[in-house]
Design brief:
This protein is an alpha/beta fold and about 500 residues long. The protein contains 16 helices and 16 strands. Helices cover about 40% and strands about 15% of the residues. The N and C termini lie far apart (about 75 Å).
Length: about 500
C-alpha cells in the first residue's frame, strides 16, 4: 500500500480561500468542488493524499460545513475522492494524481508531469521564429502602429451599431469570403491607391495577413516545395512557410530589393516567391521597376506563384505610394496580401488576399473549412469606416504622425550618426534600420537594452542563413514622443560607448 500523504491544512485553506475570493457567478459549493477536482486532476493533490477534516476546512474558509460536505460528497460520488471510516477523506488512486502534492509538509516544487513530451517537427521549426511572449515591448517595437491616435470613440460607435443591427445570418457559419460591403470598398481602395487589378469577388477577407500566408502555404505548396524568400526577410512569413514543410531558399536583398540573379544554385524551381516590393521588410528599400518586371518574368517562366506582401504601403513620406507589383501584369500569377492591423490596430485581426480567378473558389472554401469566417459585424463596421472617408483621413494623420516620430528618433540618434552610425533612408514605413559593423556590437546592444527593459530587434534574426547581417530594427510608430527621445538617446550613448571602447569598428 502507498504511504498516506497528509495534506497541510493551512496551505489548503489559504489556496482555497484565494480561489473562492475570485468573482464568480457560481455557488460556493460549485466553486469549491471545481477547485478540488482541478487540483486532483493536475496532481496538486496526489493520489493517497488525506484532506483536512471538513470542520477545519469550513472554519478556515468561513463557510458552512454543509457547503464543504456537499462538495466532497460530489467528488466522492464521481470517484475523485474516497472516504475511509475512522481515517478521513483521501484522494483516490487515479493515474493523473501520482505526482507529489504541492501542499505536502516541507513540499518542494512538483516535477513536470510530462517530462518526455515533445513537439512535432513542424512545431519545433515554428518556435524558431517565435519570440518569447511578453507585454509591451517599448519604444523600438517594430510593426506596432500608433494606438494612441486611433479614433476610438468613432470606431466604437460604428462597431456597437453594427453589432446591434447584425442580421441573424451573421451569427451562423459563413462561407462568403467576407462581408460584401467590405470586399467592395477594399476593391475600390486598392484600385485607386495601389493600382491593383481586382473585382470584389477576388477579395478574400482573412483574420490577418499571417492567416493568409498559412492558407497560401497549405493550398499551393507541398512538403519539400521551394519558396524563394527575401534575405533578410519577414519572420512571420518565414514561420508559416517553414512550418508547412516548404524549403526556403534565401535570395539576397540589396538597394533595389530582392535580386533574383543571385538565387543560390542547386535548388528546384520555386513553387512560391515571397516578396515585399513596395517597402522591403526589414531593410526598407523599394524594388525598382526593372527588378519587378524580371521577377514577374521569372515567375511566369517557372510556373511559380508570387506572394506580394504589401504590409505598410500607405506610409510613404515625400512621394505617393508605389504601385503594386500585382497591377503590372495581365498574368494571373500574383497573390496580393494586405493587412488592416498595421493601419488601425493589431487586435483587429483582419487582412485580405486578392486572388487570381482560378484560386478564388478553392481558397474561399478552404478558408471557411479550416478557419471559419467570423467578425462579420466588425467587417461591416470597417466597411462603413472606409466608405465614409474615415480610413483615408486616418491614414493621412498617421502618415504625418510617423514622419514626425521618425524625425524624433533621428534627432535622438544624431550624436551617434555624427560618429558614423548608419541609418536606413526611411522614406516609408514604421521603422528604421541601424546598420552595424559587427555581430558583437549587435549582441552587446541587445543585451544592454534587455538589462534595462528596452527590447531591441537584431537584424541578424531576420536572416535565414547564419550569421546574418548585423543591425537593429528600430520601430518608432507605436511609441510616444518622450519615449522615442529617451530610448533613442540611450541607444546613441550606448553605441558611442561601444565604439569608443573598440567594440565597434568604423562602419564601412
Amino acid at each position: 500500500m502507498e504511504p498516506v500523504v497528509a495534506v497541510h491544512a493551512d496551505w489548503v485553506s489559504e489556496a482555497l480561500g484565494i480561489e473562492l475570493s475570485q468573482p464568480s457567478s457560481h455557488t460556493l459549493v460549485r466553486r469549491l468542488y471545481r477547485a478540488l477536482r482541478t487540483w486532483v486532476q493536475s496532481g496538486r493533490l496526489a493520489s493517497g493524499s488525506r484532506l483536512p477534516p471538513s470542520r477545519r476546512l469550513a472554519s478556515d474558509l468561513g463557510v458552512g460545513r454543509n457547503t464543504v460536505l456537499e462538495a466532497i460528497d460530489q467528488l466522492v460520488a464521481e470517484g475523485f475522492l474516497e472516504t475511509r471510516p475512522g481515517a478521513g477523506t483521501f484522494v483516490a488512486d487515479l493515474p493523473f494524481g501520482r505526482v507529489e502534492s504541492v501542499f505536502e509538509e516541507g513540499s518542494r516544487e512538483a516535477p513536470d508531469p510530462f517530462p518526455e513530451a515533445s513537439l512535432s517537427s513542424r512545431g519545433e521549426r515554428l518556435l524558431r521564429f517565435c519570440a518569447p511572449s511578453g507585454g509591451h515591448r517599448g519604444a523600438f517595437a517594430p510593426g506596432v502602429p500608433a494606438l494612441d491616435r486611433l479614433p476610438r470613440e468613432l470606431w466604437q460607435r460604428l462597431l456597437k451599431r453594427h453589432q446591434r443591427d447584425a442580421p441573424e445570418a451573421w451569427l451562423d457559419y459563413r462561407t462568403q469570403g467576407g462581408v460584401t460591403a467590405l470586399r467592395e470598398v477594399l476593391c475600390d481602395y486598392l484600385r485607386l491607391s495601389r493600382s491593383v487589378r481586382c473585382r470584389p469577388e477576388q477579395v478574400l477577407v482573412v483574420q490577418g495577413a499571417q492567416q493568409g500566408f498559412e492558407l497560401i502555404a497549405r493550398m499551393l505548396g507541398d512538403a519539400g516545395d521551394v519558396v524563394w524568400m527575401e534575405e533578410p526577410g519577414y519572420g512571420g512569413a518565414q514561420a508559416c512557410f517553414d512550418a508547412s514543410g516548404l524549403e526556403m531558399v534565401p535570395v539576397p536583398v540589396d538597394g533595389e530589393g530582392m535580386d533574383i540573379e543571385r538565387v543560390p544554385a542547386g535548388h528546384a524551381a520555386p513553387r512560391l516567391i515571397y516578396v515585399t516590393p513596395s517597402h522591403q521588410y526589414p531593410s526598407g528599400v523599394t524594388m525598382g521597376l526593372s527588378r519587378r518586371l524580371a521577377l514577374l518574368e521569372a515567375a511566369e517562366a517557372r510556373g511559380a506563384w508570387v506572394v506580394e506582401d504589401d504590409y505598410d504601403s500607405e506610409f510613404r513620406y515625400g512621394q505617393r505610394p508605389i504601385a503594386a507589383l500585382q497591377g503590372l501584369t495581365e498574368s494571373a500569377r500574383v497573390i496580393y496580401v494586405g493587412t488592416l492591423s498595421k493601419v488601425l490596430y493589431p487586435g483587429l485581426r483582419l487582412g485580405y488576399l486578392v486572388l487570381p480567378d482560378a484560386l478564388v473558389e478553392p481558397f474561399r472554401r478552404a478558408n471557411a473549412r479550416l478557419h471559419r469566417e467570423g467578425q462579420y459585424a466588425v467587417q461591416a463596421a470597417l466597411a462603413e469606416f472606409i466608405a465614409a472617408g474615415h480610413f483615408s483621413r486616418h491614414v493621412r494623420r498617421m502618415r504625418d504622425c510617423y514622419r514626425q516620430r521618425q524625425a524624433l528618433l533621428r534627432r535622438a540618434l544624431t550624436p551617434a550618426v555624427a560618429q558614423g552610425l548608419v541609418l536606413s533612408e526611411g522614406q516609408a514605413g514604421m521603422h528604421l534600420v541601424a546598420w552595424l559593423d559587427s555581430l558583437e556590437t549587435e549582441r552587446a546592444l541587445v543585451a544592454r537594452g534587455a538589462a534595462i527593459g528596452i527590447s531591441l530587434s537584431p537584424l541578424s534574426g531576420y536572416c535565414l542563413t547564419p550569421p546574418g547581417r548585423p543591425g537593429l530594427v528600430l520601430g518608432y510608430a507605436g511609441a510616444r514622443d518622450g519615449e522615442i527621445l529617451q530610448a533613442g538617446r540611450w541607444l546613441a550613448q550606448e553605441w558611442l560607448s561601444l565604439n569608443e571602447a573598440g567594440a565597434a569598428s568604423p562602419p564601412r
